Amino acid sequence: MPGMALEMTSRERVAAALRREEPDRVPYCEEYVSRPFAERLLGWGRPSSDAVNLEDNEFTADEYRELAQAVGLDNITFVLRAPVYAEKHAGQDGILFYGRGLISSAEDLALVRLPDPRRDSLYAEAEAFARQKGDYSAWFNTRIGIFSTMLSMGLEAFSLALYDDRPLVERLLDTYVDWIEVVAERACQLGFDVFISTDDFAFNTAPFFSPQVFRELVLPRYQRIARKIALPWIIHSDGDISLLLDDLVGLGVVATHPNEPNAMDIRAVKRRYGDRLCILGNVDLNLLSLGTPDAVDREVRDLVRDLGPGGGYILTSGNSLTGYCSEANVLAMSAAVRRYGRYPIDVPGRRGERSP
């Protein structure tokens, strides 16, 4: 048909969206999929009951491609994160909860022993994963270090130390940032297509700390890492990061994820930043776990209608595919983006308004 985009590969589709262009259709991606969800969906065996260690990759490339095909994903993701020094507790559905931080003094810093980022063997699995990506967009998922610092200290101790012992915060943060500075440069040479960092730094109502603290403590270190990232850089943070978006744009970040429902107005973000950022998000996990396929279909339809025109939009869940997501609802989300997301977008209804 005249005006219809030619069929793209998943990698081409995601790359076009990240350039804020219109691909053949709106891509569907996830920054993370839990192993228990994949096991349940694909029948790989008895779903895991233990908490998944989110600091380690959970899938081979073959497994992730099988998962991507089943779910309809346009991306596959490899996870490599520095360890967090906190108590860890197993939750239901393979969810890992962090408890008390183990770093409360300068003496405790001796506990922090990160894998050698200059050792080739650290990257062997990641390199093999990228080499087997096929036509998918391969994402390298890591953390810059502010969230690892907060978890390793505990939120309360971290917050107090910002004022009572800033040198301790900076020493721990620099340990993580020094590590990822080497890892980021190396990761961008392995054949991945996207670099995504997943440091949460906000509650549902505001950032964990003031914009002033962000600009004093976090931003200079992010600027250092930005010089090492040679791939399109997506930043993930849950919560309301509206006050920090201008700073993130200034870093050269190409996209934000997930523009969390009930915390961020994703449509307002698209209106204000759509000429500078690709927008990722944001089908609510509550809907994906407790809703119906029909309700998921309507939600995707409205998101595609309001955010898809002009390009620069990638549909994702409002966080990730967790172990408690309904398989039927996830498949409904994937089917809906194919139903409504073909360019040029032609979805009935008034833009900016949700359907009843």
> At CATH's second level, what is the architecture?
Alpha-Beta Barrel
Helix count, DSSP H or I runs of 4 or more residues: 13
Major sheet characteristics: 7 strands, parallel
**Count of the separate structural domains:** 1
Secondary structure tally: strands: 9
- Which regions are unreliable across 5 or more consecutive residues at pLDDT < 50? none
Question: Could you please describe the fold and organization of this structure?
Answer:
This protein has 356 residues and is an alpha/beta fold. The chain has one domain (10-340): TIM Barrel (Alpha-Beta Barrel), CATH 3.20.20.210. Helices cover 40% and strands 13% of the residues. It is built from 13 helices and nine strands. The strands form two sheets. Strands 1-4-5-6-7-8-9 form a seven-stranded parallel beta sheet. Helix 5 packs across helix 6, helix 6 (155-164) crosses helix 7 and helix 7 (166-187) runs parallel beside helix 8.
Structure summarized in a few sentences:
The protein is 40% helix and 13% strand. By secondary structure, the protein is of the alpha/beta class. Helix 6 crosses helix 7, helix 7 runs parallel beside helix 8 and helix 12 (293-307) packs parallel to helix 13.
